[in-house]
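Priority: medium. Attachment 1 of 2:
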């Protein structure tokens, strides 16, 4: 049974612009619609997650989603929202990026051919690679005037008096190429809807206009707002750069932490956009959160929902365990479950010292480990006093002067976590 897709976007605050008659068409017809993904890297980031969520809602509403990977347009670069021209990618780098994005999208959408609403993946390089410039100019270019293309915001901003750099012919053709994508999908896959971020409105409507002028056809357009943070900083960015969907670029722990650290204002927005929870559940969660904001119910729910969806239940549980370590609710067993990357991320900025593997194999007493071997404590006397006060822990377990460090204490075969009191951490790294 079809749902009202537009209404779903509307209450989730995911609707920015919509072409007239689009909602009526979608309510009356099962429709194929697409979103394009720019292959500038071999992984998508959480900014792209907004577009992925739209495709998920589109499929759940009873329509056919098409995910287009821009293998051709990625060679040019979209000027929308950009003040400078992008660096062009070579064919090998582009193919690597296309393959990475394709693999990620398959995690979120149902591509089972047995499903009549099965999602499809397409690459616009497939229908542009053999298209000559002469043929493209004759068949496509003649249908849109330069005046029409110049009127688009993405072009005007780059050619206006405030622009530091102009626009190359290469980038100027981008909207025409994207318009041709829509035309091709309209003709060959009965695709009547294109969706994207609000900065794509100009490119999308170029496609609907091309379909109208060349074929006399009717196509539709929807855009969603660009996500912003309440404090004015850029969504999806940390001090370390983008928050990626690929766990090798952004670990599940850091991914989980990003959502956990959202502000209250942002959390009320994010829970609608980035989860599949229904309206009643979300409204109840917001109400509970407003009554007891210190519990951070919204942030925890978002972090759990999104981490599970993007990674896995196992990755989520590891991220939760890792997050609890700094707050004392963990054991040596929990620590030893951490992989090296996550361990170092949890204890980022904690001072480190090295000891040799041969020393470890011979056995090291606690006073030696705390003082002579690492200089974490200034002297043997200070080490002895700290141990006598029962303030020293090895991997979250209290130890006394009689304890000897061995290979069984290693986290991921390389690290030992020392702790004095509640908040003073030290890391021992074992080197060959």
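Attachment 2 of 2:
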């Amino acid at each position: 049974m079809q749902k009202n897709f537009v209404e779903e976007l509307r209450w989730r605050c995911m609707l920015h612009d919509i072409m007239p008659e689009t909602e009526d068409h979608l309510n009356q017809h099962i429709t194929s619609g697409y979103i394009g993904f720019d292959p500038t890297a071999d992984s998508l980031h959480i900014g792209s997650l907004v577009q992925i969520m739209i495709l998920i809602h589109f499929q759940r509403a009873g329509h056919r989603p098409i995910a287009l990977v821009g293998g051709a347009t990625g060679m040019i670069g979209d000027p929308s929202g950009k003040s400078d021209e992008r660096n062009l990618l070579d064919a090998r780098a582009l193919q690597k990026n296309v393959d990475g994005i394709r693999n990620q999208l398959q995690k979120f959408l149902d591509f089972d051919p047995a499903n009549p609403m099965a999602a499809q993946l397409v690459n616009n390089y497939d229908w542009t690679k053999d298209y000559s410039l002469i043929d493209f100019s004759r068949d496509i270019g003649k249908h849109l005037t330069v005046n029409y293309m110049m009127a688009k915001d993405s072009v005007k901003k780059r050619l206006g008096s405030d622009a530091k750099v102009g626009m190359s012919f290469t980038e100027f053709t981008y909207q025409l190429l994207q318009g041709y994508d829509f035309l091709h999908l309209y003709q060959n896959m009965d695709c009547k809807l294109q969706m994207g971020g609000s900065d794509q409105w100009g490119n999308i409507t170029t496609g609907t206009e091309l379909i109208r002028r060349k074929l006399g056809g009717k196509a539709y357009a929807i855009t969603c707002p660009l996500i912003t943070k309440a404090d004015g900083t850029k969504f999806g960015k940390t001090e370390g750069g983008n928050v990626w969907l690929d766990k090798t670029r952004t670990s599940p722990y850091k991914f989980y932490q990003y959502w956990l650290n959202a502000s209250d204002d942002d959390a009320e927005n994010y829970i609608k956009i980035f989860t599949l929870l229904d309206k009643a559940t979300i409204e109840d969660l917001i109400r509970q959160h407003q009554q007891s904001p210190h519990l951070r119910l919204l942030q925890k729910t978002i972090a759990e929902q999104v981490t599970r969806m993007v990674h896995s239940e196992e990755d989520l549980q590891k991220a939760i365990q890792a997050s609890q370590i700094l707050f004392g609710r963990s054991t040596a067993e929990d620590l030893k479950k951490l992989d090296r990357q996550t361990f170092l991320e949890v204890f980022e900025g904690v001072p480190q010292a090295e000891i040799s593997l041969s020393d470890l194999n011979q056995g090291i007493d606690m006073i030696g480990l705390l003082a002579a071997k690492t200089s974490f404590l200034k002297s043997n006397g200070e080490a002895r006093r700290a141990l006598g006060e029962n303030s020293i822990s090895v991997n979250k377990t209290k130890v006394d002067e009689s304890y000897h460090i061995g290979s069984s204490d290693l986290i991921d075969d390389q690290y030992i976590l020392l702790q004095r009191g509640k908040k003073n951490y030290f890391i021992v790294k074992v080197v060959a």
